Amino acid sequence: MSNSSTRSRFAAAAFATLAIGATAFSAPATAAPLPLFPFFLPQIEAAPPPVAAAPQEEERFELPARLRRQVVNYYTREAPGTIIIDTPNTYLYLVLGNGQAMRYGIGIGRDGFTWSGTQTITRKAEWPAWTPPPQMIARQPYLPRHMTGGPGNPLGARAMYLGGTIYRIHGTNAPETIGTRVSSGCLRLTNEDVIDLYSRVSVGTKVIVLPMTDRRADLGRTIR
Asked: Where are its TM segments located (predicted)?
């Protein structure tokens, strides 16, 4: 057999093989394609559900006008930087001098828990921890024995400790109690106000707490 005849036969055989292969792997147009290498295909998972939008922040409690932080006319012989607690009117005054003071609305001790006297700030703390004193636990045994600082802590964002007493000037996460008599003797401000006051005073600041029986008229007059 000649070389040309041999080459022709091999070419015909190769063509036939290709045709068979094409037929084997072809499929009707409407059929789904066959995966040749299914073990290489990634597992397709269903798309996760859309993340729910965070609820809108609750509308912030708005203090009555008289309890909002403001500069007022306030005449006193006390030196600038002194804190004066006007217990009957639920105000805290920070003396600025020149006949003026920064006035804050506060919450005070409930009936039987008010006190008066002169103290100094002996310690300051940001987001303080809270350890109820034994006297409070005796009255309210359900209270925690210790609570770390944070937004849920009843001392709020800042605390200023008064002398060696159990009393503090501190923040609160219940702003609706400002202007009321609810505490066990501590003096509370909104977190926003206590942060402002904290930034203005230092350890050693004099604090004068007027007695509840001092029914003098409100001494602070709003500057118009």
From this structure: none
Query: Phi and psi at residue 50, in whole multiples of 5°?
Result: -60, 140
Spatial distance between the Cα atoms of 212 and 52, rounded to a whole number of angstroms: 51
pLDDT digits (tens, 9 = 90+) for 55-101: 333 357 899 999 999 999 999 999 999 999 999 999 999 999 999 99
Q: Do 168 and 99 fall into the same domain?
A: yes
Residue 170 annotated as catalytic: yes
Residue 45 lies in a domain: no
Cβ neighbours of 44 (radius 10 Å)? 6
The CATH number of the domain holding residue 73 is 2.40.440.10
Task: Kindly state the percentage of the chain with pLDDT values over 70.
Answer: 69
Residue tagged active-site, from 94, 170, 197, 219: 170
Which of 121, 159, 186, 189 is catalytic? The answer is 186
Q: Is 186 tagged catalytic?
A: yes
In a domain, 57, yes or no: no
Query: Do residues 93 and 181 share a domain?
Result: yes
Identify which has the larger pLDDT, 96 or 214. Answer: 96
Report the distance separating Cα 179 and Cα 188, nearest Å: 9
Domain that includes residue 204, residue range: 69-222
Q: Global pTM?
A: 0.69
